[in-house]
Amino acid sequence: MPDLGEYVVKCIKPGGDTLSTYGDFAATQDQSIDLLADSTPDSLRAGSYWTAQTMCEDPGFELAQKIAAGTWQVVSKRQPLEPA
């Protein structure tokens, strides 16, 4: 299995939050999710580090909007050892 790296986001909104454009993914407050992990639901999982980065930085994406609003945050990221 190729190394996809790591891109972990965390819901910091009191009471939790729902990402409607990602299959109504519901997160509890302080829940961390690695966008690249196999255990992440398909509706939220990114196929590459670069896709995860776009999801978190491009204001056209709901997750990036929530990060900008301060209800989610990026807690760690690590680029893949080799390009996928």
Mind explaining what this structure looks like?
This protein has 84 residues and is of the alpha+beta class. It is 20% helix and 26% strand. It has helices spanning 49-57, 62-69, and strands spanning 6-11, 17-19, 25-27, 32-34, 72-78. The strands form two sheets. A three-stranded antiparallel sheet has the order 4-1-5, with helices on one face. Strand 2 (17-19) and strand 3 form a beta hairpin. Helix 1 crosses helix 2. The longest helix has 9 residues, at 49-57. The protein is globular. The termini are close together.
C-alpha Rg, in Å? 12 Å
State the helicity in percent bands: 10-25%
Order of strands in the sheet with most strands: 4-1-5
Distance between the termini: 10 Å
Return residue spans where pLDDT drops below 50 for at least 5 consecutive residues: none
Number of helices: 2
Order of helices and strands: EEEEHHE
Q: What does the average pLDDT come to?
A: 94
Give me the count of strands.
5
Fraction in beta strands: 25-35%
Structural class: alpha+beta
Tell me the major beta sheet. Answer: 3 strands, antiparallel
User: What is the 3D shape?
Assistant: globular
Architecture blueprint of SSEs:
Blueprint: E1 6-11, E2 17-19, E3 25-27, E4 32-34, H1 49-57, H2 62-69, E5 72-78
Antiparallel strand pairs: 1-4, 1-5, 2-3
Helix pairs in contact: 1-2
What can be said about this structure in brief?
By secondary structure, the chain is α+β, with helices and mostly antiparallel strands. The chain has helices at 49-57, 62-69; strands at 6-11, 17-19, 25-27, 32-34, 72-78.
